């Protein structure tokens, strides 16, 4: 039961962020968006290193075997995101989707590897049944929830500015995060059948998350040069996630 509850933590973070639409009167400023994108990227990169790659490297027959497995998984995760983005991009052009719908679709898409990462970490806990592995998985889930908070707001606020009701905007923002617990559950079910592939899957999730950070979040945090607020956000998010992992782990 505690695993299922932990799966919901990232979704709760998204929903709380989306709830900002009930309290804020206008859309997020560009400076705020850059800061939040930077924080999200920092959290995801730190989570990938501390919660996924390092635990994966600590397994394996020797350091070279571990390195090969981790590099293979990392590259596979990146390739999957590249292929998926190309498919989604083609669909967006063909359907002539609105900017806000494309934003919701993009956020929902990059929530999938986050759910996958949470699912793999909890699969590791179930295979080891150690308090340390549960704490590490909980730290990852909490860190992702923190970076999901701005994502919920980034979706709900523009919808409100477009003329949608506050409730409509909130529901759309919150639902963008529902794919995370669903992806975590699916990953947990699959990983249970291939438990020996955990190092590969951990790095697979890390590759997907870092790709999203480098390809989407970091560029968003740097739009319209002239301020280093995005870099400050990245450092803040990275240190926050690192502290969470050390404290829980």
Explain this structure.
This protein has 249 residues and is mainly alpha-helical. The protein has one domain. The chain is 84% helix and 0% strand. It has nine helices and no strands. Helix 5 runs antiparallel to helix 9 (229-248). The mean pLDDT is 81.
Task: Write down the secondary-structure element order.
Answer: HHHHHHHHH
For the termini, the CA-CA separation is: 20 Å
Discrete helix count: 9
Report the count of strand segments. Answer: 0
User: Which runs of at least 5 residues are low in confidence (pLDDT < 50)?
Assistant: none
Gross morphology is globular
Helix content: over 70%
Which band does the percent of strand residues land in? Answer: under 5%
The SS-based structural class is: mainly alpha
| Multimerization state | single chain
Instruction: Round the mean pLDDT to the nearest integer and report it.
Output: 81
Q: Could you tell me the radius of gyration in angstroms?
A: 18 Å
Biggest pleated-sheet summary: none
Q: Total domains, how many?
A: 1
């Amino acid at each position: 039961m505690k695993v299922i509850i932990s799966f919901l933590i990232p979704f709760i973070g998204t929903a709380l962020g989306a709830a900002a639409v009930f309290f804020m009167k206008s859309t997020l400023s560009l400076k705020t968006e850059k800061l939040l994108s930077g924080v999200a990227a920092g959290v995801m990169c730190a989570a990938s290193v501390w919660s996924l790659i390092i635990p994966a490297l600590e397994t394996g027959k020797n350091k070279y075997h571990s390195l090969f497995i981790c590099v293979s998984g990392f590259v596979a995760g990146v390739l999957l995101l590249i292929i998926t983005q190309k498919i989604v991009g083609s669909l967006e052009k063909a359907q002539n989707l609105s900017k806000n719908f494309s934003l919701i679709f993009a956020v929902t898409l990059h929530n999938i590897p986050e759910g996958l990462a949470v699912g793999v970490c909890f699969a590791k806990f179930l295979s080891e049944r150690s308090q340390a592995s549960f704490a590490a998985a909980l730290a990852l889930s909490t860190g992702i929830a923190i970076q999901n908070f701005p994502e919920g707001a980034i979706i709900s606020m523009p919808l409100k500015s477009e003329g949608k009701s506050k409730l409509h905007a909130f529901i759309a923002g919150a639902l963008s995060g529902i794919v995370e617990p669903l992806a975590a559950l699916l990953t947990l079910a699959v990983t249970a059948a291939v438990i020996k592939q955990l190092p590969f899957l951990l790095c697979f999730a890390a590759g997907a998350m870092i790709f999203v950070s480098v390809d989407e979040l970091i560029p968003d945090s740097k739009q319209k040069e002239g301020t280093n607020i995005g870099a400050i956000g990245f450092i803040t998010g990275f240190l926050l996630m690192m502290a969470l992992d050390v404290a829980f782990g």
